[in-house]
Specification:
mainly alpha; globular
């Protein structure tokens, strides 16, 4: 599944509001990765996100 711009952003915000810490779910990293990769499929992001440097 690939979300539209507002759709994936809303999903990430919903994840970040969960009681689980954002770094645990890689939510904040994943949303940065989504922006960098121009909405690639989440599975790809989930693999890339744990590497999560901001550079």
């Amino acid at each position: 599944m690939v979300y539209g711009e507002s759709g994936w952003r809303r999903e990430v915000l919903r994840q970040r509001r969960s009681p689980v810490r954002p770094e645990r779910i890689a939510g904040s990293q994943a949303w940065v990765t989504w922006r960098l990769t121009d909405n690639r499929p989440e599975i790809q992001l989930a693999v890339d996100a744990p590497g999560g440097t901001n550079s």
